[in-house]
Amino acid sequence: MKLPPGINAADFQDAVRRWQAAVGAEWVFTTDDDVALYRDAYSPFWGEDEERVASAAVAPATVEQVQAVVRIANERGIALYLISTGKNLGYGGSAPVLSGSVVLDLKRMNRVLEVNEPNAFALVEPGVSYFDLYRHIEERGLKVWIDTPDPGWGSVVGNALDGGAGWTASPFRDHFGSHCGMEVVLANGDLVRTGMGAMPNSKSWRQHKWGYGPWVDGLFRQSNMGVVTKMGFWLMPRPQAYLSGTAGVYRSADIVALIDTLNLLENEQVVNGSTSVGNPIVGGPGAADADIAALLRRPGGATPDALEALAVAKRIPYWTCTVPIYGPEKVVRAKMDYAREKFAAIAGSTFTETDLLRIPLTPEQLERAHKVDFGVPNLATFSIGARSAFNPNPTNGHLWFSPIVPRSGAAILEFQRFYAENLQNVTGGENLGFLGPIALTNWERSLVLMIMFPISRDPKQNRKIRDAFRRWVQLAGERGWGEYRTAPAFMDDVADTYSFNNGALRRLHETIKDALDPKGILSAGRYGVWPKHLRKARP
Amino acid sequence: MTMRGRLIATGLALAAVSAPHAQEQSSAPAQTQLARGQQVFTYWCATCHSAGPGMPGTQALQAKYHGNPPALLLQRTDLTPQLIAYFVRNGVSVMPLFRKTEISAADLDALAAYIVVTARTH
């Protein structure tokens, strides 16, 4: 039996016996075969000494059982690592940050406790997946939508706590931002409800976020300060209609006006859907054009002027911006007319609309749709890495490098130059199979410029990927572009880039960690927050 | 689990049962186990391994075998319970491994029996 760090066999066996008594013997996993199931399938350290692996796992089914498990761990100072559904693939999966931690697996806490249609909210436990919540709503015919990220098997609570986002209307696609109220077990086993939930017999826990006094919910986001056992979420009333439009421009520099217009439309709350920025001249139809491909292969690459000439000649936009709108049909049409007028102010631009879709979609319409845009969870996104006619050598997973970049055309152009200028240096001239950068607009006021890194079972290749990833983190950090989320292998690297005033924010996190979890039993190292006894000396 | 009933329509066809974990033909336990196996398949497997677009598992198996054996798991007469268990517990390519809090040992037996029986009666 592998032991947690700093724990002797007798103490660990005693804790295991007590956990078995608390949750049932079949829900405490200590054999090598069972514990191996907690490996991160997408680990960039797979099969290497540095791979982060658990020593055991405990799976409580109730809040009272969570409290008992945590109290037992706290008495002995045993490191726990918290997972919800364990499907945070690309960000650690079900494996701990600190090897030897005991995984606190909350998958069995899988109850949808409430879905309220008139007030459009849900209250769920951490083991509830997007599929589960969707099915619960569909079975009851409730006219509310969930917002799901691409993979629908993840935890509604876990994704929100990890800072995930989805694809329907704002503000619902900001998953942490759309939560309302939490229940949390602290490291000493105490049970806290935040916001209005702190009031006994509260009737508005899921309707008013702020409660009274300091708002503490943020302490439990991307952190290790407590075990979230319930969470409320605001849901989107099922819209009447959906309409999407796409503006296109043929000059590279017009990205500035395009993004300025997009920002206005979103900030005025005219456009509420998940917008997207495309670069069709190189990343869309242009990629299949022989003349453009030849231009891109020239030594030194293609200049914007040369690409622009081809864009105009071939009527392939240099940039596009897609603006989906949800709402009542009359309102959606009026908003789209307004959006069209605003984009028309950009000389030479084009604008096209899709057919207006009335909700609910027919099965045939849904079959053709990007389902997550309509709040329907699925797993189609895994087609990206899976074997296909175009991808005969599938990956064993992926990592996302995902820096937050300002919402401006100038920032996109700067990032494009930054990527082109540094690619050779980062990869040593080797094709490491990056996909991207892809400009995402999940959050209303910023951009995410994502690059996907493939993971394999070849340690030599994974080492190159890790080195490249760390280099991108460092280079982007020097420009002021910080990652919003990352895998355990890079949590310290990214935390190092958030270093204003000699790492003041990290020092604040550590002060809070020491107060709430003095023995450091909860998810040590998560997002760069280490307990005192494991902190590395820093200059 | 699948959103609009895209599962392959399969009867339980107990008369043809010969899987190692479902030996008692037409017995109540076998029916219960196969029904449970169908639930597990629907919940955990069908979202990637059904027919139609947006099914990465089916896409990958089609690209690998070009239809021989079939890309749909429920048409695969060559799968044994042991092989099914191996892939569930070890994963392959972008498919991760599944823990016992997701698919318990009993659920895995039921799942394997369901796939084997369904494929043989396809």
Per-chain topology:
The complex is a heterodimer of chains A (539) and B (122).
Chain A: H1 9-23, E1 28-29, H2 32-36, E2 56-58, H3 63-76, E3 80-83, E4 102-105, E5 112-116, E6 121-124, H4 130-140, E7 144-145, H5 156-161, E8 179-185, E9 191-193, E10 227-234, E11 236-237, E12 241-249, H6 255-267, E13 276-278, H7 280-283, H8 290-297, H9 304-314, E14 319-327, H10 329-344, E15 350-353, E16 357-358, H11 363-368, E17 398-401, E18 403-406, H12 409-427, E19 435-440, E20 446-454, H13 459-478, E21 482-483, H14 491-497, H15 500-516
Parallel strand pairs in A: 2-4, 3-4
Antiparallel strand pairs in A: 1-2, 5-6, 6-10, 7-11, 8-9, 8-10, 12-14, 12-15, 12-16, 13-14, 17-20, 18-20, 18-21, 19-20
Helix pairs in contact in A: 1-3, 6-12
Chain B: H1 28-49, H2 56-65, H3 81-90, H4 105-120
Overall description:
The complex is a heterodimer of chains A (539) and B (122). Chain A has 539 residues and is of the alpha+beta class. Chain A has 15 helices and 21 strands. In chain A, helix 1 runs antiparallel to helix 3 and helix 6 crosses helix 12. The longest helix of chain A is centred in the last third of the chain and has 20 residues. Chain B has 122 residues and is an all-alpha fold. Chain B has a single domain, classed as Cytochrome c-like domain (Cytochrome Bc1 Complex, Chain D, domain 2, Orthogonal Bundle), CATH 1.10.760.10. Helices cover 48% and strands 0% of the residues of chain B. In chain B, helix 1 packs across helix 4 and helix 3 crosses helix 4. The two termini of chain B are 22 Å apart. The interface between A and B is large, with 50 and 28 residues.
Q: Count of DSSP E strands of chain A?
A: 21
Average pLDDT of chain A: 95
Just give the CATH class of chain B.
Answer: Mainly Alpha
Based on Cα principal axes, name the global outline of chain B: globular
Point out poorly predicted stretches of chain A: none
Which secondary-structure class do the elements of chain B indicate? Answer: mainly alpha
Radius of gyration of chain A (Å): 24 Å
Largest sheet of chain B: none
CATH architectural designation of chain B: Orthogonal Bundle
Helix content of chain A: 25-40%
Number of discrete domains of chain B:
1
**Could you name the CATH homologous superfamily of chain B?**
Cytochrome c-like domain
Helix-residue proportion of chain B: 40-55%
What assembly state would you assign to the polypeptide chains in this entry? heterodimer
Which percent range describes the beta-strand content of chain B? under 5%
CATH topology of chain B: Cytochrome Bc1 Complex, Chain D, domain 2
* Helix-strand sequence of chain B: HHHH
How are strands sequenced across the largest beta sheet of chain A?
A: 5-6-10-8-9
